[in-house]
Amino acid sequence: MKNLYNALNLKKLLTLKELGFNFIDPIEEFKESNIELPNNLQSLKKIANSCHLCQLSKSRTNVVFGEGNEKAQLMFVGEGPGATEDATGRPFVGRAGELLTKMIENVLYIKRSEVYIANIVKCRPPNNRTPTPTEALTCRPYLLKQIEIIKPKLIVALGSTAYRYLTNDNTPISKIRGNIIDLKDFSLIATYHPSYLLRNPSAKKEAYVDMLKVKEFLNL
Ligand code: URA
Q: How far is the CA of 123 from the centre of ligand 1 (A)?
């Protein structure tokens, strides 16, 4: 039914295009239309759950909004859901998630439920590819709103995609990891993505050092 509805809408749009109307870039529309997102996580989640602003919505099973302590002083941001996250609707619950949970519980000595965990994109990119800039930028208002509501003191960017879209900086992760960066409303530290650590176990030493910096910064 939904497919038929979408097909009819698409047909209408194509007819309008033939008549000379132009399509508007969804990102520009999002930025310029000044859509007010709600200031509480429940309402924001409802909107994100029915989002169809980018093509990832077509192939997702579940929107992976994020989870954890809504008043967390520490937030982790990954790249995007994988297969297990897409199937369950929860962030970081596959193999990379198990490693992230160990980093939180065995290095920081806090429970995973004490932090908040989210991603740059809330829907799984097919075959776990890197989200495109359009997908990441279209989804970013949801993440920025989550950050605004949660008000973490420190965000750990997991991997280069998270770092890039949180800071607009393209510096390679190997160059900036472990540095605490002061941004306007929060501080940020980047470290290797847990999936990278699974593929490159020798980098775990550096990620461990980064986690110790997190611990020291927050007096955990
Ligand atoms: N990788 C991510 O970046 N995020 C998840 O939620 C899971 C794996």
A: 10
